[in-house]
Amino acid sequence: MTLISQISFVLVAAFFGFFLARRIKNIRANIQLGRSENRNDNPDKRLKNMFLVAFGQKKMFKRLIPALLHLLIYVGFLVINLEVLEFILDGLLGTHRLFAPFLGGFYTFCLNLFEFMALGVVISCVVFLARRNLLKLSRFWDAEMTSWPRLDGNLILIIEIVLMAAIFTMNSTDQILQERGAGYTTTGTFIISAQLMPLFESLSTQALVMVERFAWWIHIIGILAFALYVTYSKHLHIFMAFPNTYFANLEAPGKMVNMPEVTKEVNIMMGLQAEEGSAEPPPTRFGAKDVQDLTWYNIMNAYACTECGRCTSECPAHLTGKKLSPRKIMMDVRDRVEEIGQTGEQNGKSLLGDYISKEEIFACTSCNACVEACPVNIDPLNIILQLRRYTAMEESSSPADWNNMFSNIETNFAPWKFPAADRFNWSKKS
Ligand code: SF4
Ligand code: SF4
Questions:
Q1: Residue 65 has pLDDT above 60, yes or no
Q2: Whose CA is nearest to atom 6 of ligand 1?
Q3: Ligand 2 site-directed mutation target among 301, 327, 381, 384, most atoms within 8 Å of CB
Q4: What is the pTM of this model?
Q5: Which of 144, 245, 330, 377 is deepest in the core (most CB within 10 A)?
Q6: Ligand 2: centre distance to CA 253 (Å)
Q7: Distance between Cα 381 and ligand 1 center (Å)
């Protein structure tokens, strides 16, 4: 590698590094727009959750074939990226295949392993593209899957295929250059890329070096660009799945959490708790109208969502034709928090009303099926409940039937209209 290549590499890495660091800072600030909530209890249980659900992909295996293909992409991508370490060091130091002389036969073994993984990634990506675009799986074509989410899903698969093709091209031309004694480090045979050698053998040595270098640059620029791109894409889940599962809810599935400010008021009213002096300031709002009323974990959930639609495909409200998709709830939270993060202002809009309608949140049966189905433990129900609490407690705009039920509970301690004292009349002999 020439000095110009080294300088170019440093400049390219610095360019992507700068924008990546800025984007990470933005996402962090957006998540911190949410209310504080302590989720640092039970670190052992949380770590176990993270290893099982994010690292071990436990919940993915409810659907075996996509799970295996996803695992192939996931492991393949992780393992292949070990090679990126060599790419970076080669780029910085001006070397070529820095590790090969030190590792000898083990290097050949590792590179062959990477190539088999790369082939697995290509096959999985092709199958996933076919599922999305030829088989047109319904959950990838729901109303919220507008042009950008659909394009995003396809783009990432195509980028991965291009990155893997660059590896095969580089290794294939490299092997021909080794055979021609062009000063390339001896590495042994790479089984898969060796099959592509006939495609390049007619090229001159100079042209081969250009193709090999071009593939090298495409791969490393592709990796850096990929790292930046995922922060704007649903593929951010590659990273966010880990903190998201670590901080996930540890309570019993579907358990609704009381509002401490309401519990306190009721306790005082019933004489179970003494009224304190000034203590905490009164709550500014009951429930949630906008993203700042949600917790930081609700917002993190939105950044961890893979838009896979498993939640929506299990949602009974959605399946019976109601206007509710838990996936859309998560996408709306992310869009809204991004909007506030980018413009820095509220612009008179709010999550409830401008993004999510009351019709959607009133359609939810609180069944928890979406949470159960989510492969990364996202909790759309928690967000829906907070939005519903706002409509009930701040606006009194719940559906009329619900309002009747609320007042029955308040006066009769039961959802029905009968006074509590009459409730067991049916058991008395006439
Ligand atoms: S909790 Fe609500 S959003 Fe989730 S699956 Fe059940 S009905 Fe759908
Ligand atoms: S909330 Fe979970 S299940 Fe639903 S689309 Fe997002 S990642 Fe998939």
A1: yes
A2: 367
A3: 327
A4: 0.84
A5: 330
A6: 16
A7: 6
Residue of the nearest CA to atom 4 in ligand 1?
A: 370
Q: Which of 368, 386, 376 is nearest to 326 (CA)?
A: 368
Q: Which of 137, 307, 379 to mutate to test the pocket of ligand 2 (most atoms within 8 A of CB)?
A: 307
Q: Is 304 in the pocket of ligand 2 (CB under 6 A)?
A: no
Q: Kindly state the average pLDDT of the residues 153-175.
A: 92
∠ CA 404-410-416, nearest 5°, is 50
Q: Are 391 and 360 in contact (CB under 8 A)?
A: no
Percent of the chain scored above 70 by pLDDT? 97
- 309-320 residue pLDDT tens: 999 999 999 999
- Which of the following CATH numbers is that of domain 3-31+63-246: 2.60.120, 1.10.3470, 3.30.70, 1.20.950? 1.20.950
Distance CA 81, CA 280 (A): 50
- pLDDT number for residue 59: 80
Q: Where are the alpha helices (DSSP H) in 306-368?
A: 310-314, 316-319, 326-343, 358-362
pLDDT tens digit string along 259-299?
888 888 888 888 877 776 556 667 778 899 999 999 999 99
Give the position, in ligand 2's atom list, of the atom nearest the Cα of 330.
1
- Ligand 2 center to 62 CA (angstroms): 14
Domain regions of the chain by residue span: 3-31+63-246, 286-401
**Ligand 1 atom nearest to CA at 317:** 7
CA dist., res. 398 & res. 5, Å (int) = 65
Please, what CATH class does the domain formed by 286-401 belong to? mainly alpha
Instruction: Kindly report the protein residue whose alpha carbon is nearest to atom 8 of ligand 1.
Output: 315
